[in-house]
Each structure stands twice: as C-alpha cells, then as structure tokens.
C-alpha cells in the first residue's frame, strides 16, 4: 500500500513538474515573440503599439492552445502567472533597473517579492472547503436553499422540520456552494480562479482582493519604470533593430503589463462592488438557481405569466457588508 502511494505521489509530482515546464516555455515564447514583432516594426506611439501587442498575444495564445491539443499536453495557468512575473522581474533587474532611482528600485523589488509570496500562498490556501469528515449538516448544505429542501424531504418527518430550519439558516449564513472545477463544497464560494488554480471562498477572499490590488500596483510601477527607461534610452526614437533585444524586451514587457493592468482594474472594480453589496460572483451569474435571490412579481391583468426579478437578501448596507466580509473571512465566524 505504501509503495502504491509512493508511486502515485511520484506520478502526480512528475505531471505537475511537466505542466510547470510547459507553462515556463510558453511564457518565454510569448514575450520573445512580442519583442520580435516590435523589433521589426517602425517606431510608433504606445497607443499604436498597444492594440498590436494585444493582437499578437491573442494569436500566440491561440497557437499555444492548438499546440497543446495537438501534442496532448497541458499547462498550468497559475504556473504561467508565476513564471510571467519572474520573467518580468528578470527583465527589470537586467535591463530596466539601470534607469531607476535607488528608492524606486527598493519599492519595485519589494512589491514583486510580496506579490510572488502572496501568489504562492493563495495557490496553496484553503478557500473554505467543507470536508467529508465534518458534521452531517455540512454535508447536506449545498449550493442553494432548494437543494437543502430536497434533501430534507428524504429525512424522517419527525426530524425533518427541525433539521430543515437548521440547514436553511446554515446555508443562508455561510452560503456554501459547489465548485464544479474542484468538485467540492466551498463556504462563501465566489468563483474558481484559473489564474490562481484555486477556488475563492470565505477563507481566502481577502487575500484574493489584496493580490488583485498588488498586481495592479506592481504592474503599474513596472510600466512607469519601463517608460522612464525607454525615455532615457530614447527607445521610442529608434527602430526595433536599433534599440536591440534589451530595448525591445523593455517595451514588450511594458505593453504586456499595461494590457494586464487595463483588464485587472475592471476586474478589481467588479469585486469591490460585489463586496460592497454582499454578493458573490457565482451567485450573480446563477441567481436564478437560488430561490433567495428570486422575487416573484404577480402577473398584471392581461398577463399569463409570473415575472421573476433579482433581489439581494444579503445586502445590509456598504459599511455592514464590509465588516461582515472582513470579519467572516479572518475569523470564519457568523456575523449577526
């Protein structure tokens, strides 16, 4: 039995190592392809290069998916994010840092260290998984109140009423939902994040928000540093061949980071809104699956159907929602 477990662990470790190596390879291919495109392009403004860079990244991503399917290999999105930040850090140290003040250099390096540390933490964090060994109540609490009701109907009538009330209350407070990717029930489930390779739930939601802010700040700092380097080295006044590989990498990684910041700001704004109104991403997308979010409007004269509208029973006001978010995530307790 121990030999079988050892063999399985080696197999899992080898598979994980292979996926990490593939992700690292695609990070290198992505950045060097983008730098080569810029190398053979005429000098342009950032507004011109930005859509070109986005198009190149889409083509490279599509080609990467095609190759992975053709060869039957798979990569890891979280490893891609990790190695991408390492690559950007390497370009910063090797190229960009020479044009940056000592104080700004300390700040950028500190941001990258904390960001990579936080990334490793959230990849391995427990989002709030309801384990099989927990109480019978936790096993029954599902993705919605309707699922709780369906399970209560299978119980004996003598205990069904009491247990139904307990389960309904537990589902309302902890909001346990099912993640199809992880095949597990998660307390406070918001969504499954492919970039971090983990669910975002009650126990790591604050860390997720901090990381989003960290990505925006760090990549914005890197864009500013690259722009400062490009200005001092007059990279924008040269062709790609004249500026060399170092100049092209500084511009390509700057454009890559700028594109990341643009969508991350929108993503962060959405999650801030969700926290302020106390709703999860998964609940907002699939609210029709959860009866507590459904408000039935009786048909008006001449109508033959009942209109279903969205309502948020968990919204208690911005300040109370923020308090509940912070306290429930840190302590894992019920907020009254």
How are the SSEs ordered, and which strands pair?
Layout: H1 2-39, H2 46-71, H3 77-94, H4 102-123, H5 136-140, H6 145-152, H7 157-174, E1 176-179, E2 184-187, E3 191-193, E4 198-200, H8 205-232, H9 240-277, H10 281-285, E5 294-297, E6 307-310, H11 318-331
Antiparallel strand pairs: 1-2, 3-4, 5-6
Q: Can you give me a brief rundown of this structure?
A:
By secondary structure, the chain is mainly alpha-helical. 65% of the residues lie in helices and 7% in strands. A hairpin with a 4-residue loop joins β1 (176-179) and β2.
Tell me the fraction of residues in β-strands, as a range: 5-15%
**Low-confidence parts lasting 5 or more residues at pLDDT below 50?**
1-12, 133-172
Question: Which range best describes the helical content: under 10%, 10-25%, 25-40%, 40-55%, 55-70% or over 70%?
Answer: 55-70%
End-to-end C-alpha gap: 48 Å
Mean pLDDT across residues: 78
| SSE string | HHHHHHHEEEEHHHEEH
The description of the largest β-sheet is: 2 strands, antiparallel
The side-by-side strand order for the widest beta sheet comes to 1-2
How many helical elements? Answer: 11
Radius of gyration: 25 Å
| Structural class label | mainly alpha
Shape summary:
elongated
Number-wise, the strands total 6
Give an overview of the whole structure:
This protein is mainly alpha-helical. It is built from eleven helices and six strands. The strands form three sheets. Strands 1-2 form a two-stranded antiparallel sheet. The chain has a two-stranded antiparallel sheet with strand order 3-4. β1 and β2 (184-187) form a beta hairpin. α2 (46-71) crosses α9 (240-277) and α8 runs antiparallel to α9 (240-277).
């Amino acid at each position: 039995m121990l030999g079988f477990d050892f063999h399985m662990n080696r197999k899992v470790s080898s598979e994980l190592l292979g996926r990490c190596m593939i992700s690292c390879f695609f990070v290198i291919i992505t950045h060097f392809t983008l730098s080569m495109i810029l190398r053979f392009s005429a000098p342009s403004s950032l507004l011109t290069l930005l859509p070109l860079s986005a198009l190149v990244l889409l083509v490279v991503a599509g080609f990467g998916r095609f190759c992975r399917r053709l060869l039957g290999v798979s990569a890891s999105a979280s490893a891609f994010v990790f190695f991408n930040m390492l690559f950007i850090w390497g370009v910063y140290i090797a190229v960009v840092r020479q044009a940056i003040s000592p104080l700004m250099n300390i700040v950028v390096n500190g941001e990258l260290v904390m960001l990579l540390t936080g990334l490793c933490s959230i990849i391995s964090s427990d989002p709030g998984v309801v384990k099989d060994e927990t109480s019978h109540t936790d096993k029954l609490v599902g993705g919605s109140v309707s699922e709780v009701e369906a399970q209560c109907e299978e119980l004996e009538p003598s205990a069904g009423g009491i247990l139904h009330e307990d389960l309904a209350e537990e589902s309302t407070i902890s909001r346990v939902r099912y993640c199809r990717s992880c095949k597990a029930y998660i307390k406070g489930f918001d969504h499954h994040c492919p970039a971090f390779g983990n669910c975002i739930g009650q126990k790591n939601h604050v860390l997720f928000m901090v990381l989003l802010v960290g990505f925006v700040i760090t990549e914005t700092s890197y864009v500013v540093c690259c722009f400062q380097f490009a200005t001092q080295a007059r990279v924008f006044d040269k062709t790609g061949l004249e500026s060399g590989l170092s100049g092209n990498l500084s511009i390509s990684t700057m454009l890559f980071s700028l594109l990341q910041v643009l969508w991350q700001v929108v993503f962060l704004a959405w999650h801030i809104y969700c926290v302020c109104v106390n709703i999860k991403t998964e609940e907002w997308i699939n609210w029709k699956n959860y009866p507590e979010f459904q408000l039935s409007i009786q048909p008006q004269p001449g109508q033959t159907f009942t209109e279903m509208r969205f309502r948020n029973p968990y919204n208690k006001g911005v300040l109370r929602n923020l308090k509940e978010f912070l306290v429930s995530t840190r302590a894992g307790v019920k907020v009254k």
